Each structure stands twice: as C-alpha cells, then as structure tokens.
Amino acid sequence: MIKNEFYTLNNGVNIPKIGFGTWQITNKKVAKEAVKYALNAGFTHIDTAAAYGNESYIGEALKETKTDRKSIFITSKLRAEKKGYDVAVEEFNKTIKNLGTEYLDLYLIHAPSPWPEMRDRKIDHTEENIASFKAMIDLYKAGKIKAIGVSNFNEKDIDALISATGFIPQVNQIFLSPFNPQKDLKNYCEKKGILVEAYSPLETGKIFKKEKMEELKTKYNKTIAQISLRWCLDYNTLPLPKSTHKEYIENDIDLDFTLEKDDFESFL
Ligand SMILES: NC(=O)c1ccc[n+]([C@@H]2O[C@H](COP(=O)([O-])OP(=O)(O)OC[C@H]3O[C@@H](n4cnc5c(N)ncnc54)[C@H](OP(=O)(O)O)[C@@H]3O)[C@@H](O)[C@H]2O)c1
Predict the structure, then answer these.
(1) Which residues of 193-213 are buried (b: 16+ CB within 10 A; e: fewer)?
(2) Quick one: pLDDT band at residue 8, thresholds 50, 70, 90?
(3) CA–CA separation, 55 vs 251, rounded Å?
C-alpha cells in the first residue's frame, strides 16, 4: 500500500513515497484542519516552507494530534531570498521553532534565485547558494536535518553545489506532472542519485481541465487526481498533492492501482 511505501534517499534515509502539500493554505483553521485530515487519511509526510507562512499551524496540528515525531516526515524550505551561511542557520532555527520540532527530516533551498528574478536569472547567486548549502551540510552533520536538498534547481545549479562541497543533495523538488515530465532534469537527477519530488502534480488544479485525463479517468474508473499521482509514482518521482478538502485528501492517497504501460508511456 502506498501509505506504507518509501523511497530510500542516497544517504540511506527512508522517505514516504507521497507527501501532503501545503502551499497557499494560509488560514490557521483551514491549515490545521487540512493537516489533520491528511494525518487521518494516512499521510506521514508533510511538505511546507517558511514562505508558506503555515509552519506554526502545522506544528500546532501535530501537537494537538499528539503525533509521534518519529512517525512523521517533515520537509521545509529556506526562503528563496534568504541566502548565505549565517542567514541559513538563522532561518533554519526559526523554522524548527515554528514547527515545534528539534529536527527536520528534509530541508531544501527553495529556489536558486529570489522569486522576482527566477524568470531571467540575470543575477548569479551561485556563491550564496553554496554558502547556504554549506550551512545545511553542517546542520545535517550535527543531526539537526536528516536529509538536505534543493528545489527549482537546474543541472548547472546542482553541479555548482556538488563541485564546491563534494556533497550530493538528496532531493530536487521541481514542477512535474504527466504533461510536464521534465525528462532531461529528471534523468540528470536520477543519474546523480538525487530523488525528484513532483510539486504541483495536479498543476495547481489546471490538470482537471485536460481532455486526455478525462479519457483515462473513464478507462480506469479513477479520479483525474489519482491518475496523475499514480503516474508520478510510476515515474519514480514523489508527488506532493495539496488539498483542503477531506474527500480529496483521502482520494489523493488512495493510489493502489496500476496504469497500463502504454498509458504511462503516452506522456513521455
Ligand atoms: N518548491 C516549490 O517551489 C513548490 C511550488 C509549488 C508547489 N510546491 C509544493 O507542491 C504542493 C502541491 O502543489 P500545488 O499546491 O501547486 O497544487 P496541486 O497539488 O498541483 O493542486 C492542488 C489543487 O488540486 C485540487 N485537488 C487536490 N486533490 C484533488 C482531488 N482529489 N480532486 C479534485 N481536486 C483536487 C485542490 O483543491 P482544494 O485545495 O480546493 O481542495 C487544489 O485546487 C504544494 O502545496 C507545495 O507543498 C512546491
């Protein structure tokens, strides 16, 4: 069952194969409720970020549900605009305080450049990213983070970190869906032993309008969300669906079915 399945990262750490996304869940009540629905549905992996502004709500939900810290995998991210060694340590400490935890399972650099610069990337932030990554490596060595990685990084960005530190990130979290399989970057990561996490696996809702998904939904008698998430898993990536509705959340982890090879390959 998907609820009990894990990928093993390149440092031997096990990570639940599916995670609950929390971007744009900014209302305290809604966030706490959604996390509780997710835990009840069987999610054991929660994806957040300092930038989402909901770390403390997630922390409260975990506390109120008396969730055993060891039974849950928590990912958070260093803000895209916060870079450098000391800044990274400071931000990390704020994050674990907000979440009410002593350690993170996974900590990612949210993006190689601050968001307003992500389109043209004219300003080079390589040295600052290396400094942030060095801080994360030290926190990792100190046992404060179980795995470290990046998000929205391309091949060149990752190569720069590896050649400066000799440390291969455990994860790259990128936008990935059946209609956006990111073949080159995914192959690059796979060759390096970096797990690819699929963010926006439902294209932030846009996937529900795709005609091809309607056909597959009818053929398999599954929802479009289930088809897309199953596809991401079959592609050896880790999907991070987000929802605030109980029935959707339950649906998003009900993925024990198979896609035929031809249907899987039709997106590649
Ligand atoms: N690292 C990054 O830069 C980055 C960027 C984007 C996202 N992420 C991560 O990836 C997660 C997911 O991406 P996303 O937030 O863009 O959204 P998504 O999971 O691609 O799509 C969410 C949308 O799908 C709906 N939905 C979910 N399950 C459904 C179901 N079974 N049936 C019908 N509708 C369903 C949700 O509805 P309701 O919410 O109304 O229930 C919401 O409108 C984020 O929350 C975040 O954790 C990371």
Answers:
(1) ebbbbbbbbbbeeebeebeeb
(2) very high
(3) 24
Which residue, 31, 141, 25, 134, is CA-closest to 86? Answer: 134
- Most informative mutation of 197, 248, 252 for ligand 1 (most atoms within 8 A of CB): 248
- Distances from the Cα of 224 to the Cα of 47, 218, 228, 266, angstroms: 22, 9, 6, 16
Question: Which residue CA neighbors atom 38 of ligand 1 most closely?
Answer: 243
Model pTM? 0.98
Strand-pair category, 20-21 with 45-47: parallel
- Taking residues 13-24, what's their average pLDDT? 98
* Residue-level pLDDT at 160: 98
How many Å apart are CA 136 and CA 170, to the nearest integer? 12
CB distance 79 to ligand 1 below 6 Å: no
Measured distance CA(193)–CA(171) in Å, rounded: 9
> Distance between CA atoms of 153 and 185, rounded to whole angstroms?
9
Q: Domain-by-domain residue ranges, the chain?
A: 2-265
Q: What backbone phi and psi angles, to 5 degrees, belong to 176?
A: -150, 130
Q: Is 128 in the pocket of ligand 1 (CB under 6 A)?
A: no
Residues 4/213, Cβ–Cβ less than 8 Å: no
Instruction: Indicate the average pLDDT of the chain.
Output: 98
For ligand 1, atom 36: residue with the closest CA:
243
The CATH number of the domain covering residues in 2-265: 3.20.20.100
pLDDT at 18: 98
